[in-house]
Amino acid sequence: MRKTRIGVAGFGAIGRSIAEHIAQGIEGIELTVVGVRNPDAPPEFDWGSQGAPRFTTLDNMEPYCDIVIECAPAPLLTVIAEPFLKAGKKVITLSSSALLLQPALIELARQHHGQLLVPSGAILGLDAILATAEGTVESVKIVSRKPLKGFLGAPYLEKNNIDVLSLKEPTMIFSGSAREVAIGFPANLNVAVSVALAGIGPDKTSLEVWADPTINHNTHRIEVVSDSALLTMQIQNVPTNNPKTGRITAQSVIAMLRKLHAPLSVGT
Known about the structure:
Order of helices and strands: EHEEEHEHHEHEHEHHEEEH
CATH topology of the largest domain: Rossmann fold
CATH class of the largest domain: Alpha Beta
Shape: globular
Strand content: 25-35%
CATH superfamily of the largest domain: NAD(P)-binding Rossmann-like Domain
Oligomer: single chain
Structural class: alpha/beta
Strand order of the largest sheet: 3-2-1-4-5-6
CATH architecture of the largest domain: 3-Layer(aba) Sandwich
């Protein structure tokens, strides 16, 4: 069986974790290329017996793999995704907020028979939300709480002059729609956009965002009211060394890769 060639675009905390899992061995999967800013100075990494993959720039990965996993800053999604979609290939993206702001990518995928795949990432229940959306969904509400450092760099905070590190007690810093979250917190709350894309859309999905100095885990609670089920779900994510991202994010991508060639696939 020919192995599916995988590319990892970006080599921060998530990209490294994905590479570590692939290096340990996944049936039918081979990591063939890593996209970085400077291919001439590749990052240090123990590639084990598989050996190091090719290193290239983020816009030059398409010839070397069948599927690319986007693990880069959100503004780079288009640069990474366009060549693959034009070639009719698959893009696994962790920047669902950027995807919401770049609807042309979805049309590009449709025109060239490519595909954009959004893994569960740091959220739970997307399979159930997708199922409820086949019927009538009345409401979807998300309450997200993160430690203070999990919001650093968010445009919404800078625009509204919110010094999140000075907060001494849990504080709601935002209330609004998932579409507004994609603009105000593009690197902090991709989970909200993923839920919105699975359910009733970014304008009807409501969100409360809390900065909480009393917690250590990124916590998300989802409530869905539909004609087929009432869903109440909560997840507490252990963060990586990047406080914006949970460890389970990379593992959700690995779970998606395992399903590509698995004799048994579980979940919607």
